[in-house]
Amino acid sequence: YEIFLYHITLQLFQLIYKLPKISLSPDNHFLIVQTSNLHLRFSTRYGQTILVLGDHPALGGGDIAKAVAMRFLNDQCWHLSIDIASSKGKKSIHYKYLLQDADGRITEEW
């Protein structure tokens, strides 16, 4: 009986945390929001930052000035957790990584 109850509890827990988040757009339409996690294994020098630039507004909308900084985890790992709202008619998101030096200079390809 305890094993069965544990199994049901685990299934409910998984169901609850797999449900999408719902958000309201500026024009009062409901949007499904999904949390995306990006991990990058790349060794940087002190003062450098990895940025993510994509064709979705949450990733800068193609504007380098709005690119999103990843979080430094250790000498070879970077991470970004970001909420991405659904876009009407858009089925995929394209993005790229940028390397920003301490002086602000950005390298798009390395």
Quick take:
The strands form two sheets. The chain has a four-stranded antiparallel beta sheet, with no helix packed on it. Strands 4-3-7-8 form a four-stranded antiparallel beta sheet, with no helix packed on it. It has one helix and eight strands; from the N terminus they run αββββββββ.
Strand content: 35-45%
Topology as H/E string? Answer: HEEEEEEEE
Describe the sheet with the most strands. 4 strands, antiparallel
Helical content (DSSP H or I, runs of 4+): 10-25%
* Mean pLDDT rating: 79
The class by helix and strand makeup works out as alpha+beta
The CA-CA distance between the termini, in Å, is: 57 Å
Number of helical stretches of at least 4 residues: 1
Please list the strands of the largest sheet in the order they lie side by side.
1-2-6-5
Oligomer: single chain
Question: Would you mind describing this structure in some detail?
Answer:
- The strands form 2 sheets. The chain has a 4-stranded antiparallel sheet with strand order 1-2-6-5, with no helix packed on it.
- The radius of gyration is 19 Å and the shape is elongated.
- It contains 1 helix and 8 strands.
- The chain has one helix at residues 2-18, and strands spanning 21-24, 30-41, 49-54, 68-69, 71-74, 77-85, 95-100, 106-107.
- Residues 1-11 have low confidence and may be disordered.
- With 110 residues, the protein is an alpha+beta fold.
- The longest helix is centred in the N-terminal third of the chain and has 17 residues, at 2-18.
